[in-house]
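User: Hi! I have a protein structure encoded as tokens and I'd like to know what sequence might fold into it. I'm fairly new to this, so please keep things simple.
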């Protein structure tokens, strides 16, 4: 018997965890943390409805926290099998898990100091030690090469774009009575984005688990270099500080790269970029180590050290130097994590900068429901940060051209090479209305059977 259980990213975009069982073999595809509103985050504290010590393996599609952030809890709860991922995903996962542990520790300390907690004592979901305990289980797998997990399951990765090392997972399954196949899309990227490879051609399978982050939505066509130049002109004129909440891995490199290309081409004057993230250098090293996984070739990396970091780029590792940025005058750029403004150093910059009308806030990614980022995108006049009211007078500018996610037409385009209908498409990884919209489009355009699983639902294939 073959079953799929959706223990995350069902009715929401975060907490990706899909349990595949083939007879007694149990494989978890992605092991993400729930993010966003409190009721969702609290799910990270309740044990999953399966026994982690029963799992044979975890297969990761990519290294975003909503796909890997539950690993330390899984290992803590007894999972001792291998965690498969591509090599750059593993390196980024290590950095991201340590960072997530730090962010949680810092937030818990802050809440305890300010007594901003409804609990006796705020605790991190996992510690740096918990994060490190997962590292020994990571096992690299390269794109397009089959990996066997016993006689009944094998899988291989196909490039999915999105972020460095991201893949869709194709699986061939055999439960003794029949053979079948399934493709887990993971997060599918866009076409022709700076620094990121295009999504590859997805193999045809019997079943498809498809993300729907931007179901029913179309990203406005944007020339990202042109738009970024326009934002930069504006901050020069207004002597504005541009605050960019960005996923520290990938997005920060992409933005720095675009700005430095514009400076090199003399389309904009040089501007100081402050990267307030201790991860930046380590992440850039990963880009240097895995040139075949992104679109800047090795010789370009060797030739121009400033592909990512020019003289105008200052890195802030220590908290003290981060705090000095509070006095920074424009024109200048502060880039800091987290991308959805759910934690991390960006919060301190927002407390300091949001009430200042000279501040420009650049929104470059998806903001999940219930996050601070979403409230600001939706035009909130004031927000609460660390339980303190903060007025929003800063100008918010959206640059969706940098979204790491395909919109619904790009997803349909990605699926275009499929000649045969899959038996069923499971539409996941979207807020309810977006999954509905994506499923509707797939039915209308392709006439494929679609199914939107609810959280913790199990289906038999
Ligand atoms: Zn992702």
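Assistant: Happy to help. Inverse folding works backwards from shape to sequence: for each of the 461 positions I chose a residue that suits the local structure. Here it is:
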């Amino acid at each position: 018997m073959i079953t799929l259980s959706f223990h995350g990213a069902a009715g929401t975009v975060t907490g990706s965890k899909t349990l595949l069982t083939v007879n007694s073999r149990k494989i978890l595809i992605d092991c993400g943390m729930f993010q966003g509103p409190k009721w969702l985050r609290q799910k990270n504290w309740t044990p999953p409805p399966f026994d982690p010590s029963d799992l044979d393996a975890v297969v990761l599609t990519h290294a975003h926290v909503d796909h890997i952030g539950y690993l330390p809890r899984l290992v803590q709860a007894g999972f001792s099998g291998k965690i498969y991922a591509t090599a750059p995903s593993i390196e980024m996962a290590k950095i991201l898990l340590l960072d997530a542990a730090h962010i949680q520790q810092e937030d818990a300390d802050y809440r305890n100091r300010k007594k901003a907690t409804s609990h006796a004592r705020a605790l991190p979901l996992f510690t740096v030690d918990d994060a490190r305990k997962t590292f020994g289980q990571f096992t690299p797998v390269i794109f397009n090469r089959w990996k066997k997990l016993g006689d009944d399951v094998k899988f291989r990765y196909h490039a999915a774009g999105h972020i460095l090392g991201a893949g869709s997972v194709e699986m061939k399954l055999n439960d003794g009575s029949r053979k079948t196949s399934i493709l887990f899309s993971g997060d599918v990227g866009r076409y022709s984005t700076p620094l990121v490879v295009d999504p590859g051609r997805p193999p045809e399978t019997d079943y498809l688990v498809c993300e729907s982050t931007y179901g029913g939505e179309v990203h406005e066509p944007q020339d990202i270099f042109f738009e970024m130049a326009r934002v930069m002109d504006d901050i020069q004129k207004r002597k504005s500080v541009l605050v960019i909440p960005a996923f520290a891995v990938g997005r920060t490199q992409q933005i720095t790269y675009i700005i430095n290309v514009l400076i090199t081409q003399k389309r904009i004057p040089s501007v100081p970029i402050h990267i307030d993230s201790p991860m930046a250098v380590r992440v850039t090293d990963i880009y240097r180590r895995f040139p075949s996984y992104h679109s800047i070739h090795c010789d370009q990396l060797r030739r121009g050290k400033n592909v990512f970091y020019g003289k105008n780029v200052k890195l802030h590792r220590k908290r003290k130097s981060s705090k000095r940025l509070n006095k920074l005058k424009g024109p200048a750029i502060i880039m800091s994590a987290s991308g959805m403004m759910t934690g991390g150093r960006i919060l301190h910059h927002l407390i300091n900068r949001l009430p200042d009308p000279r501040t420009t806030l650049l929104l470059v990614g998806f903001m999940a429901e219930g996050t601070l980022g979403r409230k600001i995108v939706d035009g909130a006049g004031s927000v609460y940060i660390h339980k303190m009211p903060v007025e929003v007078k800063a100008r918010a500018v959206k640059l969706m051209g940098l979204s790491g996610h395909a919109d619904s037409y790009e997803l349909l385009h990605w699926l275009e090479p499929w000649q045969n209908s899959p038996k069923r498409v499971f539409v996941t990884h979207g807020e309810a209305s977006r999954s509905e919209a994506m499923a509707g489009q797939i039915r209308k355009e392709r006439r494929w059977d679609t199914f939107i699983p609810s959280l913790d639902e199990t289906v038999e294939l």
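A useful reference point when you look it over: The mean pLDDT is 91. Feel free to ask if any position seems puzzling.
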